[in-house]
Amino acid sequence: MDDEDHSSLIKMIFEKFETRLCPPSAGITNVTLKQLWARERQVLVFYHHRIAHTSSLWPGYMIPSVWPNTTSVEIMQEHLEDKYKRGRPTERFWICQGILTPTPTTIAKNPLHSLETALAGPATEGLLSFLKGKSAGATGINIVIADFVEKGGFVSNILALNESL
Questions:
Q1: Distance CA 55, CA 67 (A)
Q2: What's the CA dihedral at 47, 7, 54, 145 to 10 degrees?
Q3: Which SUPFAM superfamilies match (predicted)?
Q4: Structural domain of 14
Q5: Does one domain contain both 100 and 159?
Q6: Per the structure, how many domains does the chain have?
Q7: Are residues 128 and 93 part of one domain?
């Protein structure tokens, strides 16, 4: 994409979501689901391009998202625990990715299973186990990513984590 394409996309984002955009000026500590709903500002846009430095779009560096890049639930949990224990800068969001990455070997070893049953289900169970006892908010977890979130009580667990704020 060139600068003109980025400008067009940003213009479209503003046209569609202008009244719902939560600007960076709100500050990361004021971005909770409860506060977003109360202000009717439920859209945060993170844009990874220099042309997007506006007062309404969050810079891409504010939302680093490192995933474990493994097929092992145990390695994923160790990765998440290590990142959680190290902490994070309070001026950035913290993404907790409970996603396993398939390899050709994973696919070859599971010809009768979908990626949902081979990886996503076990990953979500491992993620929920990791989240037990963790905190949400400015010094804890902000965003949780998983596949097939409708399974395993994922949504109710994440809502409970948010209620702790």
A1: 29
A2: -20
A3: PLC-like phosphodiesterases
A4: 3-61
A5: yes
A6: 2
A7: yes
* Distance, first Cα to last Cα, the chain: 40
Do 32 and 109 have their domain in common? no
Let me know the angle formed at the C-alpha of 159 by 114 and 32, rounded to the nearest 5 degrees: 120
Alpha helices in 32-120 (DSSP H): 33-39, 73-86, 104-109, 115
> Are the CB atoms for 68 and 80 separated by under 8 Å?
yes
How many residues are there in the chain? 165
Residue 67 in 3-state DSSP?
coil
Apex CA 49: angle with CA 45 and CA 51, to 5°? 95
Is 66 inside any structural domain?
no
- Residue-wise pLDDT tens for the chain (165 aa)? 898 999 999 999 999 998 999 988 888 877 877 888 898 998 999 998 888 777 789 998 888 887 899 999 999 999 999 988 888 777 888 889 999 999 999 889 888 888 888 899 999 999 999 999 888 877 788 889 999 888 788 999 988 888 776
H helices of the chain, in order, are: 3-17, 33-39, 73-86, 104-109, 115, 121-131, 154-163
Half-sphere exposure in the Cβ direction for 132 (13 Å, CA): 7
Q: What's the CA gap between 132 and 144, in Å, rounded?
A: 13
